[in-house]
Amino acid sequence: MTPQRSPLSSATINENKPLISAEEHQKRLDAVNFGRSSVQLSGFTLDDETEALYARYVNGELDHAELTTAILRLSGLVN
Predict the structure, then answer these.
(1) CA angle 18-73-27, nearest 5°?
(2) 62 lies in a domain?
(3) Is residue 34 part of a domain?
């Protein structure tokens, strides 16, 4: 299988090699779970598009700046 490039990142997507370390993956997962819990405690839920962006972040396809930009675009706050 030929490695592919993420459309928002220069990181190579390769099924055989993780994009980030296991430690970084866990750190990102913990942060996303904390944020999701905070949103839920406020009586809201994240939509599927937002969840998909967070999954890409946790898996290393997006860095924090790319995630922030994508969330702002999704919310209509930037073009």
Answers:
(1) 35
(2) yes
(3) no
Domain holding 77, by residue range, is 44-79
60 inside domain: yes
* DSSP symbols for 58-74: HTTSS-HHHHHHHHHHH
Query: Taking the complete model, does pTM exceed 0.70, yes or no?
Result: yes
Give φ, ψ of 46 to 5 degrees.
-85, 140
Sign of the dihedral defined by the CA atoms of residues 1, 51, 35, 30, in that order: negative
Residue with tokens 């809201």: 44
**Residue 59 forms part of a structural domain:** yes
Q: What is the pLDDT along the chain (79 residues), one digit of tens a residue?
A: 444 444 444 444 455 667 999 999 999 999 999 999 999 999 999 999 999 999 999 999 999 999 999 999 999 999 8
Element (H, E) at 4: strand 4-5
